[in-house]
Amino acid sequence: MSVIRIRNLRKAYFQKKVLHGIDLEVEAGQIVGYIGGNGAGKSTTIRILAGLDSRFDGEVEVMGFDVQKNPIEVKRRIGYIPEAADIYEMLSPREFYELVGGLQDLPWEITLKRSQRLEEYLQLSYGEDQRIDSFSKGMKQKVLLISGLLHDPDLIFLDEPLAGLDANSVIRVKELLQNLTERGKTIFYSSHIMEVVEKISDRIILLDKGKIVANGTFAEINAQVRSGSLENLFSELTGAGNESISDFDFTADE
Ligand SMILES: Nc1ncnc2c1ncn2[C@@H]1O[C@H](COP(=O)(O)OP(=O)(O)OP(=O)(O)O)[C@@H](O)[C@H]1O
């Protein structure tokens, strides 16, 4: 079953065209890495899929619902973990989970149990009444991740989920994502670094300047790179083959 279906998606911010006709279908139970350089349009696509921006042309269906006509039905069924969200930092994590769980109509006991399990798994520990504003970037990222999973959504969108996490936490989050797909969930996440995603993604979609330029398994994409068709983009996304910057001098013309 397709959980995401996109037909000719075009998006502009005022005069600036950002997405130039995206076609995409994602089957349930996959981990999909949505990869592209800075400004390629990844966050824009994810915000549209999450029902947060209805100003676009084309057709976008998520879990069988048209996101423009039924954004609420979409939001009920998905989890959305943005790269950096305006989190209520005056609250403690527990208060924040209670707020988010309440918005999803979850009984408090369920919210508490799930958040405790996830905190333990992600090794997030803090003082009893500690507020989120005293947390590090990585700790806040974990709170966001946990709050986005509380209602056990079937489709989970993550925007740069590993940014700001230490090496051990990266491993934990990757394991968590794999564990979720083993339970039948679908994961769609963005990154601008290829190597972050290659090991866990069933499928990789490469986005370049608002267009999908490759879509397949890592092996399939690798073959295209070797044939030369994706070489430049690949080196940009992996950092491979970049010229040395040791000679760089920003005061050279003075
Ligand atoms: N609210 C906005 N108003 C105007 N332009 C925007 C807005 N949001 C994004 N853009 C522009 O749309 C383009 C795509 O941005 P987007 O954030 O989707 O890229 P991205 O692939 O997620 O990049 P990054 O990896 O840097 O997060 C960029 O040129 C950006 O400047």
UniProtKB/TrEMBL annotation:
InterPro entries: AAA+_ATPase, ABC_transporter-like_ATP-bd, ABC_transporter-like_CS, ABC_Transporter_VariousFunc, P-loop_NTPase
GO molecular function terms attached to this record: ATP binding; ATP hydrolysis activity
Coiled-coil ranges (or none): none
UniProt entry keywords in alphabetical sequence: ATP-binding, Nucleotide-binding, Transport
Protein name from the UniProt record: ABC-2 type transport system ATP-binding protein
Domain ABC transporter: 4-234
Organism: Neolewinella agarilytica
SMART domains membership: AAA (SM00382)
